[in-house]
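re: ur question from earlier - yeah i can do the single chain one, its not a big deal. heres the input i used so u can compare w yours
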Amino acid sequence: MTILSYNFFYVYMNILFSYLPLSKIHLFLINLDLRKHFNMRFLPLRTMGDMRKDYVSERFMIISKKDDKVIDPKKMPFAPGNESMTNPSVLSLVAKDGMLQRLQDNDDEYVKNWTIRVFESKNPVVSINAENSYSDKPHYSEPAYGYHYVVVASPKPKDTFATIDPEQWANVLVVVQDRLRWLYTQKGVTYVSIYGDQGEAAGNNNPHPHLNLITFSTIPPIIESEAEASHNILNEKGVCVMCQTINAETGSTRQVLQTEGFIAFCPWASSQPYEFWIVPKKHITSFSKITQKDINDLSLILRSTLGGLSKTIKNVSYNLVFHLSPEKKNSRQIHWHIEIYPITKPRSGLERGYGIFLNDISPEQTAEKLGAASRKELANLVGII
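and the output i got, formated as tokens:
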């Protein structure tokens, strides 16, 4: 299928109009003729907002202009049967005869009975059609250029990240890994961010479980800072700081759970109550290169800990964020991991204004509660009890 954006189409039509007095009927017939003979589908042109930088600090914000009317999430736009409410899928996984078929929507025909679905967001944070404009300091801005894909993690609208079974989680992670690799082959992609939001307090008004993959032409400040600090410690002490952390937290009072290849723990200086990280035990900087065995292991600890969190705090909202190294050539690498930030209270002025966080419960206490609930979840999943 060939996809052309309206901007290309209108350029073509403007040239045509200069020679021929075409009516709206003619234009409609030309559109149908192009669709029929060239299998083209026209997507609306988006004029995205810009990405602005703080006067002093390495802090960015994006003005995301939404040209389309946002579909009411109560209509379940990500649910089976409502595929027309989203952009066509670039990948739909369908289970058949014990195998997973890799299909995709074609024109106005939508794949049915899918288990995982991937498509470009209809209301993207960034766009490859972003206006190519820059401005200098103090009002520095650059195009909000990039790709924004949505990975629907389950066909069931009432599922959550904490109820999806480990096998489904493993399939989701394989799909994410595959899309991550493809995105890094695209022009203008320096970093791919992967995150999920659970609950309205976490910034998600669509309850259907899904992950976002958003690319940037620069490395996000938090990842850049983490990579720089890790690089400096490696140069000074000859050790990966995350590997050092794993050794310190294994068996500590902050450990939540561990499997053969991963450990979950509440960080020593948690930024909010019940925050925890999931980290591969072996030193690895690239999520795209982990094996199927690693993915199966990761899916088990993800499901167990998120299930434990949901049992510990009822109706909890949280952000799930992948901290990955840039896949393209870069001397600054990090030991990849996943960070989960439960939203349990509003942030104070001290936290917002000074970056000093206040917790009313220690990481050691939260790890004890999370650990007990997560171990029970794990036991249920593997059939011990």
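The chain has a mean pLDDT of 86. not sure if urs matches, ping me
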